[in-house]
Specification:
about 425 residues, 3-stranded antiparallel β-sheet, Heat Shock Protein 90, 5-stranded mixed β-sheet
Length: about 425
């Protein structure tokens, strides 16, 4: 069943209840009015009966024809007195309204031999109640018809918008993100169209950014593989080749002690360089230092090594007591700081950097700030910023990057801590 039919049924049910309540109220009021009217009519019947007995001439048809609720009927000599017979709605209303009200007829025999029947006649009250019921039903039916037509018109307009929105959402589900809704209709319709258009525009922009970032990540991945291959081939491979050549030389100069000593020193030198190269390579692939040092010491070592390579003054301040973190969280924090320092070295042109890692209540806060040239925030962050945002999301934290031209960069991470 459609929404329009359900609304129509609810409205019809509501109007039915209201109509029944109004009818019950009308009938209740009619019962009270009928009781008062018929009591007055009984008094009139008694008065007319006594008057007709004393002075038959005063009971003229032209005087009694317009009496309300009282009927005076002159009978023929052989005619039997009878009450008016009603059927249909009038009969039902008569039984409902006058079941508890006595309204018998009086037969008066006049001195001149005529007979007259004087009775309470409820037909006037029945006509009034029937007219009131008909007016009430007509008014409710008209109100119901107007309401249904108004609802149909309003719902049709709303359903038209919903159908258009449904078609647009189907296109979005199919991957066609260029669909837009026309801003037409009322304020709510235009507002809905504007929100939908902003949503599809944001989805389209996000898709474009994801595609661009995917290409950048693939390019970075290929670059890292190329750099790894060059390091293994050009640097580590040369040392291995030298070690092998020196090992072969040892067999040839075994009888020359000086040459053997010199060759051994060169072997030790090459092995040391080879070990350093492997250590740097492993450190770039995974921060092994986190397995052997606390987080504060790992941060201090990272800052010290970065300061030595870049020649930029870096001040580190860490809270005395840091909370215990999982291995994954420590890795994300370490990599996030590493990426921030890398970005500063590449783009900031800074001479001083401050790093703060502080524990405040249920949060762990990381602040990285430099005094470099700064820049306006980019609407399309690069791979580095995207990587830091993803790591902050993995930590469940809030990452904010603030930068203004000439005022340097400021990175803040607020990470909630799990209750112990």
């Amino acid at each position: 069943m459609s929404a329009l039919w359900r609304i129509n049924l609810w409205v019809c049910g509501f109007f039915t209840l209201v109509t029944l309540a109004c009818m019950l109220l009308l009938m209740h009021q009619a019962l009270e009015d009928v009781e008062r009217e018929l009591q007055s009519a009984e008094a009139v019947v008694e008065y007319l009966s006594e008057t007709a007995g004393r002075d038959p001439v005063s009971l003229q048809p032209r005087l009694t024809a317009s009496l309300r609720h009282v009927r005076v009927r002159w009978l023929a000599p052989d005619e039997q007195p009878q009450l008016p017979v009603q059927d249909g709605l009038d009969a039902w209303l008569g039984r409902l309204l006058f079941a508890q009200v006595p309204h018998g007829a009086r037969l008066v025999a006049l001195a001149d031999g005529r007979r007259v029947q004087i009775a309470v006649d409820p037909r006037d009250e029945i006509d009034e109640v029937r007219d009131s019921l008909q007016q009430l039903l007509s008014l409710c039916a008209l109100a119901l018809m107007v309401s249904l037509l108004t609802i149909r018109w309003a719902v049709r307009r709303g359903m038209g918008l919903l159908e258009e929105l449904l078609r647009a959402l189907q296109q979005v589900s199919a991957g066609r993100l260029k669909v837009r809704l026309r801003p037409q209709g009322g304020p709510e319709t235009r507002q809905l169209a504007a929100h939908f258009n902003r949503m599809t525009a944001a989805l389209e922009q996000a898709g474009t950014d994801n595609a661009r970032l995917t290409q950048a990540l693939l390019a970075v991945q290929e670059q890292e593989r190329t750099q790894l291959a060059q390091t293994l081939h050009d640097d580590l491979g040369q040392y291995l080749a030298g070690i092998r050549a020196q090992a072969c030389l040892l067999r040839l100069v075994a009888d020359r002690p000086e040459t053997v000593k010199r060759t051994v020193r060169e072997l030790e030198h090459n092995c040391e360089h080879l070990q350093q190269g492997f250590r740097a390579l492993v450190h770039n692939l995974y921060p092994v230092v986190l397995q052997h040092l606390p987080l504060a010491d790992a941060f201090a070592l990272l800052v010290e090594q970065w300061q030595g390579r870049q020649g930029i003054d870096c001040q580190l301040r860490i809270s005395a007591r840091l909370p215990s973190l999982s291995a994954a969280d420590k890795t994300h924090l370490y990599r996030l700081l590493q990426e921030a320092l890398t970005n500063i070295a590449r783009h900031a042109e800074a001479s001083q950097v401050r790093v703060r890692l502080q524990h405040h209540g249920a949060h762990l806060r990381l602040l990285v700030r430099d005094n470099g040239r700064g820049a306006a925030p980019s609407r399309r962050p690069g791979v580095g910023l995207h990587s830091m945002r993803e790591r902050a999301r993995s930590l469940g934290g809030d990452l904010r990057i603030i930068s203004h031209p000439g005022a340097g960069w400021a990175l803040t991470l607020s990470m909630p801590l799990e209750a112990s």
